[in-house]
Specification:
264 residues, alpha/beta, 10 strands, binds ligand T3D, 2-(1,2-epoxy-1,2-dihydrophenyl)acetyl-CoA isomerase PaaG, isomerase, isomerase activity, PaaB1, ClpP/crotonase-like_dom_sf
Length: 264
Amino acid sequence: MSDTACLAATLDHGVLKLTLNRPETLNAFTAEMGRSLIAALEVARDDDAVRAVLLTGAGRGFCAGQDLTERDPASRTGPPDLGETLERFYNPVVRLIRSIEKPVICAVNGVAAGAGANIALACDIVIAANTARFIQAFSKIGLIPDCGGTWTLTRMLGEARAKALALTAEPLEADTAAAWGLIWRTCPAVDLPVEAEALARRLAAGPTRALGLTKRAIQAAGAQSLDAQLDLERDLQREAGRSADHAEGVAAFLEKRPAQFTGR
Ligand code: T3D
């Protein structure tokens, strides 16, 4: 299941767990890691056996963003085309996270900087260790926030906080991120693996079609009128209503037993 040296992948109870695995660099992103993550997310999108994704990091950090040793000015002749690396690696990762119609959970186990922060924030549910920090580190190296950061931060926090975080590159403690509504919640670092896994398994055992359609509807909401959203809800509810999991959910309620969803 797409297991590589820099990205560990396991499938268990319908949860595809992806662990960024370069702990000696706080899981800084290399081109190889980007390729591996894209391949794993494509599996998550296409394989019916995957009903939820759990993204996390190995060691004390979640992800320190782009591996800067790959950008060493001493090892190149001219300026790099960073637009090209965004197009090849970072943008596909964010597009996949947002378009996979299954829950994507991020367990932020430690510092999340640069692209690492914004990939985490692109996920559907973010649960973080209370020791974690989110850092828009880009301005410290003369770059702008990417991986959708300018979009995500502005939508979720408003311009005042988005600009302050991006322009100053000051760390945002995970508890403050939760209080501001940037992530779902925090928990003690020691509890994070168990809590995140339990959440991912619960969602993987859920009505996958309905969860995927819910994700699509919520993501569409910010870009359209209430009228258009009501039309979208009508269309998506029509689709959800035809699913085997809807029939199972109603039958289980009437029979006073737990529902056994199959994701169909
Ligand atoms: O280039 C493009 O394609 C455009 C896209 C860019 C996207 C981006 O992500 S740009 C932002 C890149 N990331 C950064 O600028 C963050 C750099 N790292 C840091 O500022 C700090 O490491 C942290 C604040 C994240 C954590 O600080 P701390 O004190 O907890 O740990 P540390 O000691 O700085 O790091 C531990 C090790 O990881 C250290 O190695 P060493 O000295 O033990 O051998 C450090 O060099 C290494 N490391 C941390 N971040 C990176 C890294 N190595 C390579 N690249 C990194 N980004």
